[in-house]
Amino acid sequence: MKHIGTPFSEKVIANLKVGDVVSISGYIFCGRDAVLPRICKELEAGVWDKRSIDLKGGVIFHTAVSPAGVGPTSSNKLEIEGSFETLSKLGGIKMHLGKGAIKPETVKMLAENNAVFAIIPPVTALLESQTSERECVAWPELGMEALYRIKVENYQAIIAAAKRESIYE
Asked: 3-class secondary structure for the chain?
């Protein structure tokens, strides 16, 4: 088990490999199909900085935040997997956290940007007990699908894609 804290340095991410089990602590961002394309649009337009939300070295957890807790959604949805490149290149996101297989070209792109994809089992009740803070930081009108920042303690995940390798190949 590798204990890692956010925000991640380039070195921390460079030392992760497929199959590593990690325990993540610190602040992470939560978003899925409704909000990730909006973030990408603002990053591409060069207006994201106006929000004063620093994504660099961060984690995007593919989930909605509800009173019941958080649990991963499928990362291979078009709107979600389609956000990986922009979030990694322009946003500085170092870890995409969700579930399911991603495309080989996405695996390659992650390696080119020293970023990784990690999977987390769908264990909403357990994750809720390891979540101590939650704050809506953008698009509150989207409700539980808005962009949230949460504080976590010992979220466990498995590195599923790194250095051009994937557990799905």
From this structure: CEEEECCCCHHHHHCCCCCCEEEEEEEEEEECCCCHHHHHHHHHHCCHHHHCCCCCCCEEEECCCECCECCCCECCCHHHHCCHHHHHHCCCCCEEEEECCCCHHHHHHHHHCCCEEEECCCCHHHHHHCEEEEEEEECHHHHHHCEEEEEEEEEEEEEEEECCEECCC
> Are the C-beta atoms of 58 and 116 separated by less than 8 Å?
no
Does residue 69 register a pLDDT over 80?
no
The listed range with the strongest mean pLDDT (65-79, 110-124, 139-153) is: 139-153
Q: Are 73 and 80 in contact (CB under 8 A)?
A: yes
Contacts of 159 (CB under 8 A, 6+ apart): 16, 17, 18, 19, 20, 21, 22, 116, 117, 118
At residue 169, the pLDDT reads: 80
Q: What is the pLDDT of residue 103?
A: 95
Residue type, position 74, single letter: S
Count of CA atoms in the C-beta half-sphere (13 A) of 33: 8
This prediction has a pTM of 0.80
